[in-house]
Design brief:
With 260 residues, the protein is mainly α. The chain is built from twelve helices and no strands.
Length: 260
């Protein structure tokens, strides 16, 4: 087991070095969250005055920051499978298969590096939120929960994207599925609007949306009086889903190995 962790960390460093060689990539990935944060924040700032808002805050920017961070984790990690396809097309993955590196490390390193980059992006968005006037009532603990939960959610979508990349084998399939899923997944959650202002059928669907689990856990932790029962239950559900997604990606990796 220690060897598997050592190999995973070694391969993760390989992924991170590639990330650090392109610092502009971090700036580019933050363009969309900046648009959500500042444009949506300005456009909908009066929504808190509507009856039934019930977002647990009197400031829309306070409500919006967790939504932006969680949606950034989803949108960034949904494309992890594209990196896997690039490794396959360049022959890099097949070359690594003949090395002593543990097979699970080859796949898990991609997920771990994505989770770490998601955490860095989340911290950057927290700073941008503070510049926009967000007040983090939950303090450091609440922000830590937000970063961890968003990283776990990123693992879910990163692992599923890797599995899809190995099954589909084509960029167009990943692009099509991701484009189709991102907007419905966003608006069938409380990322930008509380459940009190959503149609009933949307609130029902949102209960089964893992994005909403991450939002429920992080927003509760970020209040002045957190409901730790809600934080733990929603976080546990996310961790369980992440474990399943990683298991599925490993199974699909096994299928790919047999095909080469």
């Amino acid at each position: 087991m220690s060897e598997a962790f050592a190999h995973t960390w070694f391969m993760t460093q390989r992924q991170l070095r590639a990330f650090l060689r392109q610092p502009a990539y971090l700036v580019i990935t933050l363009v969309q969250p900046i648009i959500w944060l500042f444009l949506f924040g300005a456009l909908f700032h009066k929504v808190v005055d509507l009856p039934g808002f019930g977002g647990g805050t009197d400031s829309y920017i306070d409500y919006l920051v967790p939504g932006v961070i969680v949606m950034n984790a989803v949108s960034a990690n949904m494309w992890a499978g594209m990196g896997m396809l690039e490794e396959i097309e360049r022959g890099t993955l097949n070359g690594l298969l003949v090395t002593p590196v543990r097979r699970m490390a080859l796949l898990n390193a991609n997920i771990v590096s994505q989770a770490l980059s998601t955490a860095i992006q989340s911290l950057a968005i927290i700073g941008l939120g503070a510049l926009a006037g967000a007040d983090y009532a939950g303090g450091v603990t609440g922000l830590l929960v937000l970063v961890l939960v968003s990283s776990v959610l990123g693992c879910v979508f990163g692992a599923l994207s890797n599995a899809l990349g190995m099954v589909a084998g084509e960029r167009e399939t990943i692009i099509g599925i991701n484009t189709f899923l991102l907007l419905p997944a966003t608006f069938l959650s409380t990322a930008f609007m509380p459940s009190g202002l959503m149609p009933h059928w949307m609130t029902v669907v949102a209960r089964f949306n893992p994005i909403n689990w991450a939002l429920a856990a992080s927003r509760s932790a970020m209040t002045a009086s957190p409901d730790w029962g809600s934080v733990l239950s929603h976080s546990a559900a996310l961790v369980g889903l992440a474990a399943f997604a990683v298991w599925l990606s490993l199974r699909m990796f096994g299928v790919y190995r047999k095909s080469v």
